[in-house]
Each structure stands twice: as structure tokens, then as C-alpha cells.
Amino acid sequence: MDFFIDIKNTQDFSYPKKFINTISLSPPIDIEPWWFITFEKGDVNSWYHTLKKLYPKRELIPFARFNANDDVACFDGNDKSGNPKVLIIHAYASEGWEYHGSYNDFNEWLNKAIKTHQEWEEDEAGN
Q1: Whole-prediction pTM value?
Q2: Is 2 domain-assigned?
């Protein structure tokens, strides 16, 4: 499956290797209710510009969305370490209310997304 990371305005930002390896898996990893926006051409750029307009003081590199609400998982674009924090941003919230938490890195976020997926699957099976 192809993926698209096409943000042009992120000088010196490096995506974590674990992220690149994860989105390169075939078949893609199922983390629903999260989904990687990198699989839809134009979605990364669209979300990048939307979040930049909503929260101009933040440098957010979006990579995943949550199905049930407007939460977007973003890398901290100011972190040039190659292993940036993951910020959960509630898109369209008033500035100052958008921050919904963070993870130390992509690995920690992915582990939580997998756990959320497992819980979601159990809930779906129980209904």
C-alpha cells in the first residue's frame, strides 16, 4: 500500500524510523478506531495546513486521526531529534483547549493505539 508524506514546510524534521517502518507494513497494521492519514493522498498536507491555521503557535506534523472525534495524533514539529513527542490535538477546539495529551514518542503512542484497537474490537464483539 502506498503512503503519502508530502509536507513541504517542515525543514529539519525527521520522521521516526519506527513510524516509517509501521506505515510501510504490508498489509497495513489495523489500529482502528485510529487510522493513518498518510494513506490518503493530500490528507497530511490538508491536516497540516488546517492545524496551522487553527493553532499558528504550534508546529504540528499530523499522522493519524481518531474515528470517534476530531482528535489528531501529531508529531511535535519543533523536535528535531528524530524521535519526537506525539501530541494529541482536538482539532477545531478553541485555541488553548486543543491539547488532549501527549506520548513520549511514536512507540508509546502506537502501543496505546494497539491497546485501544483491542478494546474497541472486544466492545464490537460484545455488541
Answers
A1: 0.88
A2: no
